[in-house]
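[SOLVED] Need 3D model of a two-part complex

Original post:
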Amino acid sequence: MKLKTISETRSHGGTQGVYSHLSSATGTEMTFAVFVPDHAPDAKLPVVTYLSGLTCTHSNVMEKGEYRAACAEHGIIFVAPDTSPRGDDVPDAAEEYDFGKGAGFYVDATCDPWSKHYRMRSYIESELPALIAAHFPVDPLRQSITGHSMGGHGALTIGLRNPDVFRSVSAFSPIVAPSDVPWGEKALGRYLGKDRAAWREYDAVALIEDGARLPELLVDQGTADNFLEDQLQTRRLIEACATAGIAADIRMQEGYDHSYFFISTFMADHIAWHAGRLNA
Amino acid sequence: MKLKTISETRSHGGTQGVYSHLSSATGTEMTFAVFVPDHAPDAKLPVVTYLSGLTCTHSNVMEKGEYRAACAEHGIIFVAPDTSPRGDDVPDAAEEYDFGKGAGFYVDATCDPWSKHYRMRSYIESELPALIAAHFPVDPLRQSITGHSMGGHGALTIGLRNPDVFRSVSAFSPIVAPSDVPWGEKALGRYLGKDRAAWREYDAVALIEDGARLPELLVDQGTADNFLEDQLQTRRLIEACATAGIAADIRMQEGYDHSYFFISTFMADHIAWHAGRLNA
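Solution:
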């Protein structure tokens, strides 16, 4: 598992790096960002992985997410992967921002031509954590996951499917029921095919309905988010968690939108919340 | 003084706005960013103006500067102007990142063809503060100024020329002696002409040598900054302040570079330092 260093920059009492590697999951060169706070020579630090939303790469949250001060304070390594495979060989949906490159939806695609490279589930669940553990001073037993919008969907579904791997799960304005909203129906229908039964493991509300459980959950959602009604439908997560008895702290944030102006506002809160679980 | 609202977004318990107006100083439409923390209805808040560096607009610090949490905490309004006039009518130096658009150097140009629009000194010293005072809940008697690189040069020179206007002055990796470094010689020579005597009011070290004084000064400078030796020459500011008896806290930050990864690291420190002076 070779790693190529693209850049390493000192920031907030740590190192913000950007790296790439040839991924066996996607068959492409994948780029990701990692922030490592200064630490004792033999320390093994807990990890928070942040999954980004539609159209993003590793760099949006790296530039605008305002996570480094909190990660340095709590001794957390922060990992920000890309949102899809990239490269000229990777099929894309030209001029569709919500499908193809930048829109992997954290699934392992099963339909042609997507199934060859669009394997972001395997990449995030298996390959990337192993790569991170091999190259960075992490404690693989202390991992948490979060994300925004499509990446909030990714964090919730990956967290719900792997409760023994991720100690805590949070999300910013997540897509909570992709099977029933335009972004999700388009993506799951084309990546996974028409059989909606196959979509349920990629749908947080469906996973909870089918019995998946987390001890608790933290979600922030802006009330001025243009996508709230049509695409995000936070109330469905609130209802599913209530029915399932999941202690979900789902905070409707008055006046906030879907942008990094919103995410950065609550990022330090999420880092501190995860740190409380990871450092317990 | 009419103001056009381009966007207003809720962030960190306040409003991050972007506005534009037709500037009488530059004769062009000028865009700037303002962050206003939530405040009591009749409150008048102090202001920190941040001047950006080469190639930047208002948006670089707005996206990457990480100032909002600190400004909200201390009740500070943060103003981020552009770095030059813009528009098709404005003369530019094609393919020169360090002259023309994006490189106004905070001077009032006296040489053709620059003198018509490149009047960033008047814009920052006079027009913009009056515009801000007319449209935002500020206390004009409580103003401070900071900036990065070319904007650090702007903050130092504007602060040194107007010690009664700005209660405190700080800078991130400023150009301290532009008369003697390539960036500054090029810009001052073309905006102001060959007579170097005219450059001295746009040169922080020269201003101090000529008698300008500030009660104190805060500067952060990364030791891994590629521009340190050739363009910034921090040691010359250290020497000038020592000779002049200016209480300058000039901090060489080990391993930090010239980027917003560096600026964002120390931004909250600078905001808190200014707040201590503004809210005293």
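Edit: Residues 4-278 of chain B form a domain with the Rossmann fold fold (CATH 3.40.50.1820).
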